[in-house]
Each structure stands twice: as structure tokens, then as C-alpha cells.
């Protein structure tokens, strides 16, 4: 019996020694060059949200039915992952199918031009995103209806596509009421609030918010984080930090007045708080909404107002300045 045990031990030692000498690849891990995987970014985001947070977001594309008559519209984003040696050897050709989305009106026949293959330029990056745009002829769209469609990857010419993240439901605009808006959508909102009294302040504070067309010439903020985490009605407010306590404080709810060229001509205090008065635009700033493309738009605004609060028992009015920048978010996912 001892002889058998010794023989087995010697065999194992010899085998291990042989493996080390020849650098044997256990299960092929060392020589595996990897695989290219294509997915839909918005599907990845929504699936992760559903599994971990459960906010129940939806994916959107935002474009005006009114103008221009034909437009290149971004509908979703392809995410290409190639973390190991295997990289794209040329353009990645992706086939996509569009089908009806339950609960929404289907786009008019022929209104959206989907090519036989989407050509994604080759890259050596370990992962990258590619925005998918389709030509939209808006003539047949009815602004009174709410549209949507489902997009599915059906084939790729290199690697594989993710079975879990190959399909996404895309809703056209946040509501039918926004069908003729060039501004509505999710933005990265960066704010700087300067209070000479030192009570409140923010420097380049950034959060995702929506801009919504309250009417043809006004825009409101919709802060989903404030709406989800608080029962208060401050989800349309400008916030600043209390510099003594660190608490986030709602100052007032701005409503942006915009003319036909995208120029911000005024800011209204829709919250009606009497602590904020005399809102004045800074003429040295752009105060302009810039629309370059459906997925490339921004607004920069600078203004001041008189803020009256009590500090150390003393009623203290002073002029607070605010600089805001809204940049269209590459990921259009939010509540409908």
C-alpha cells in the first residue's frame, strides 16, 4: 500500500513539474485571445437598473416632429467589448430589426430608414460606444400620438452579440406633449452658485436632470433624483449647499423663457418663493440653447437674483450669481 501511495505521489510531482516546464495552459485560459461582444448600451443600463436599483427607467429618443422635415436621429448606442487580444479586423457590420412596441403607436411606414447593415469603424480600444442614427422623414408623424419601437440586433459579422442586451424598447419623446419640442430630454446639469454672504454655494455641481417644454417658449427642470428621494415638491428647484451644515437646500424653481432662436430671454420664479426676487440675466453670458444635432445640444445661462434670508439673527438681502450649463446626455433613460 505504501508503495502505491509513493508511486502516486511521484506521478503527481512529475506531472506538475512537466506542466510547469512546458507552461501548460490550464483550460485554455492563458492562450485564449478573447471574443468581441456587441450589445446595446441602453439595454445594458436598463437591465442593470432592473436587477439592482429598480427605478424602472425607459429608453428614449428625443426629436421634434415639426422641424427639420428630415433629420438624422440617434435612437440608441452600440457597445463593443474586446478586452483581450482579439480586436476588430475591419468595420463591424451589425444588422438591426425594428418591430412594434406594445402600448405605443408604430412609426409610419417608411418614415425611418434602417440600412441593411450598420457599419461600425474598427477600433483597438478594449471597449467603445457607437451612436446609431437613422434618417427620419417626419411628414407622416402625428404630433398628437405617442410613438415607440423595439430595436433588436439580429447579426454581426465579427464576434457575437449579447443575448441579454440585444434588444431595447425606444420611446419617441417623453410624452406626446413634447413631440414638437427641440429641447426636451435628459441633460447633465452643472451649476455654480456664488453667495457673497457665504451661506450657500456650489461649484460645478453636476447631476442628471430633464428639461421639459412647459409651453412653446418655456422650459422647466425635472430632477428625478429629488423626486425619487424626497416627498417634497422641490424636484424643479435650483439647489445649493448650506456651507455651514452641508445640507442641500432648495432655493427656487427657475422657468427659462426661450425665443424662436433658442435665446434665453428671461427666467421666471415659478415656485413663487419671496426669498428670491429680481432675477436678472447676465448679458455677458451666451444665455443660449444651441442645437447642433438631435444628440448634440446644450444650454448655457448665467443670471443673478436677490436672496433674502436670516443669518445670525439678521435679515440679509444680497445678490447671488448662478452659472448653469445643460449638456445633452448620451444616455437618454428616465421615467416617461
Account of the protein in words:
With 336 residues, the protein is mainly β. It has two domains: 37-178, Immunoglobulin-like; 185-334. The protein has three helices and 22 strands. The protein has helices at 2-22, 41-52, 224-229, and strands spanning 37-40, 58-61, 70-81, 92-100, 112-113, 118-120, 127-137, 148-156, 160-161, 167-172, 185-194, 200-215, 218-222, 238-242, 248-252, 254-258, 264-269, 276-281, 288-293, 296-311, 314-328, 333-334. The strands form three sheets. Strands 11, 12, 13, 14, 15, 16, 17, 18, 19, 20 and 21 form an eleven-stranded antiparallel β-sheet that branches. Strand 16 and strand 17 form a beta hairpin. The radius of gyration is 27 Å and the shape is globular. Mean pLDDT is 90; it is low at 1-6 and 8-22.
What is the structural class?
mainly beta
Output the radius of gyration.
27 Å
Quote the average pLDDT: 90
Specify the oligomeric state: single chain
Signal peptide: 1-23
Protein name: DUF1735 domain-containing protein
Keywords: Signal
Describe, in short, the structure shown.
This is DUF1735 domain-containing protein. This protein is mainly beta and 336 residues long.
What's the structural blueprint in terms of helices and strands?
Elements: H1 2-22, E1 37-40, H2 41-52, E2 58-61, E3 70-81, E4 92-100, E5 112-113, E6 118-120, E7 127-137, E8 148-156, E9 160-161, E10 167-172, E11 185-194, E12 200-215, E13 218-222, H3 224-229, E14 238-242, E15 248-252, E16 254-258, E17 264-269, E18 276-281, E19 288-293, E20 296-311, E21 314-328, E22 333-334
Parallel strand pairs: 1-9, 2-10
Antiparallel strand pairs: 1-3, 2-22, 3-7, 4-6, 4-8, 5-7, 8-10, 11-12, 11-21, 12-13, 12-14, 13-16, 14-15, 16-17, 18-20, 19-20, 20-21
